[in-house]
Amino acid sequence: MSRLDRWFEGLTRQSARRLSRRHWLSRFGGVLVGGATLPLLPVARAAEDNAMGEDGVRGREGDPKRCEYWRHCAIDGFLCSCCGGSHTACPPGTEMSPVTWIGTCHNPGDGKDYIISYNDCCGKTFCGRCMCNRNEGERPLYHWYRNNDLNWCGGASAQTYNCSTAVVVKTAQEAQPER
Amino acid sequence: MSNRAKLFGALSLGACLLWFRAAAEVPPETVGQVAELPPMAGAHWLWVPDRLFRHSILFDGDSGRMLGAIDSGVQITPKPPLWSHARKEIYNVDTIYSRGHRGERKDFVVIYDSRTLNVKGEVEVPPRAADTGTGIALVGLLDGDRFLVVLNQSPGTSVSVIDLENRRHVGEAQTAGCAGVFPAGPTRFGMLCGDGTALTVHLTENGELDRLARSKPFFDVIDDPVTEKGVRDGSTWWFASFEGLLYEVDFSGNAPAPKEPWPLFTENEIESGWRIGGAQHLAYHRKTKRLYSIVHEGGPGSHKDPGTEIWVYDVPSRNKIDTFSAPNLIAPFLGPQAGFDATGMLGSFLSFVLPNMGVHSLTVTQDERPLLFVRHSDLGAVGVLDALSGEHLRDIDEAGLSGALLVVP
Asked: Which of A138, A143, A151 sits opposite B194 (nearest CB)?
């Protein structure tokens, strides 16, 4: 057995003794190794890429629980689909802010560009799941309605931020500046 | 030696040992002691605000030791603590609700004694303080430390002015279409606007709105906007655009005076994909006139991506003079959680094999031997570099869990 193997074995045993099964690092490690390996399996990858998702889009770009979902091109926050709501509905007990920022995203399903309204859900603290930050067409703070840094719960009755939705407003006249 | 002499010697030795043992006992201590900070803030101190713990920790960058902390409200991120060295006070703008995360909203400027970190007062302000994921350019302490300015979003824009000497909210001024608070004097501050202009807000000596003065348009909001993450020297602010142009804006006159921008990247560097990016992505050292810029290789829309390199510029000559490597902060973040020493062999090994996620934010101390602090928004560790040589000196671990701000007091 090489010295490196012995070192790793010692490290693993030491780690197993010190960490409870529920310790976050154990889960982190599992997610890191398992999460990184499983999608590499050809069957899993092919199944995911071919699964029909929302809006007639296949694969991750059609999955509202993924950052890659096509509507998420300018989102910054926790995805409401992972928080008890959906990409168009807030989780129970929260309130959808009526004012928001917008993005222009390209739907690979029909080839059209859409104006997306990223209404925040408000009144409970951070959901904490499926954090996603994409900034295609996002603009700085002084360009309010294109800025995704802001807590847009400013327009709701309770302004604690919970998660963000991605609602289609209508088809766009032109693509976002980056396209 | 006689038997009596031996016995005397043994007894003497025993007595000495007993005496030493008694002398080594820990004496009883006083219950109820509370530490205080030194009278003056250290040149290498650093605030690290955290979104999840909802407080700002004060660290000593030389030792990495935590010195204390102040709490924040329940906004997305704590706002940067503002330190008046003259008045020996710290100001924090907080949003709170009457029932924890719900109920009636109230916003306050909370006033701390800068030695005890005890709250010594507060000023209630309109419950509209703007709240962002980064916390950058939302509040400003004007020169002379009398007036504090808070950016509001309701969702229209305005600013609140607070008179710290008289502990009162002076008033709210409408600044439609402009955002950011960039202090530029005792009674003036700048803003950036959605039409590609800048604005100077002039206050009277009592802190009321005197007048607004707007520049001509000088940047393209859609095609190549400047970020609001600017850096300051006196009444001059520098802002970088998405495509890497550095704009200098002089706020010393009536209206802002922008100068012709200059490129941070050569054409070859642009073709190779180098771009500015991050959260607090610029820092400036006033004495050496050095600008530090976090850069990465990416495409359009990557203006908030972290970078693994920090490019250093001499601003007067407009030359890039150095390239620093951002440290890999994964091991210092994981070390305390997993029970290994990040400075040991395992930490070094992990830093070598794990991908460097880069850094979103940086800031620099303003002394003769400056330190450069860097952080990734989602790793609770701060890297400490020699700001002149770029040498990675140490990491500050257990610096929270999430946040984009780094504030030198």
From this structure: A143
Map A108-160 to HEC letters: CCCCCEEEEECCEEECCCCCCCCEEECCCCCCCCCCHHHCCCECHHHHCCCCC
Distance in angstroms (rounded) separating the CA atoms of residues B79 and A115: 32
pLDDT tens column, B39-78: 999 999 999 999 999 999 999 999 999 999 999 999 999 9
Q: How far is CA B341 from the centre of its chain?
A: 26
Kindly tell me if the per-residue pLDDT of B155 is higher than 90. no
Q: List CB contacts (< 8 A) between B74 and chain A.
A: 125, 160
Residues facing residue A131 across a β-bridge = A78
Residue with tokens 């154990």: A26
User: Count of domains in chain B?
Assistant: 1
* Beta strands B55-60; B66-71: pairing state: antiparallel
What is the spatial distance between Cα B76 and Cα B403, in angstroms, rounded to a whole number? 9
| B393-402 tens-digit pLDDT | 999 999 999 9
B192 to chain A: nearest residue by CA? A142
- Mean of pLDDT values over A92-118: 95
Q: Which residues of A22-51 are buried (b: 16+ CB within 10 A; e: fewer)?
A: eeebeeeeeeeeeeeeeeeeeeeeeeeeee
Residue A160 identity (one-letter amino acid): T
Per the structure, the complete domain to which residue B221 belongs is given by 36-396
Report the complex ipTM: 0.87
The pTM (predicted TM-score) of the whole model is 0.88
* Sheet strands (E) in A34-88: 76-78
What is the secondary structure of B41-54 as a DSSP string?
--TTEEEEEETTTT
Burial classification of residue A3, based on how many CB atoms lie within 10 Å of its CB (0-12 exposed, 13-18 middle, 19 or more buried): exposed
- Identify the structural domains of chain A with CATH numbers, from first to last: 3-40 (no CATH), 60-171 (2.60.30.10)
pLDDT at B14: 60
Q: Residues of B numbered 297-336 whose beta carbons fall under 8 angstroms of chain A's beta carbons: which are they?
A: 299-304, 334
Q: Is residue B406 part of a domain?
A: no
Residue B27 lies in a domain: no
> What backbone torsions phi and psi does residue A14 show, to the nearest 5 degrees?
-65, -45
Q: Looking at chain A, which residue has its C-alpha nearest residue B197?
A: A142
Cβ B292 vs Cβ B283: under 8 Å: yes
Q: Tell which residue, A97, A86, A87, has the closest CA to residue A124.
A: A97
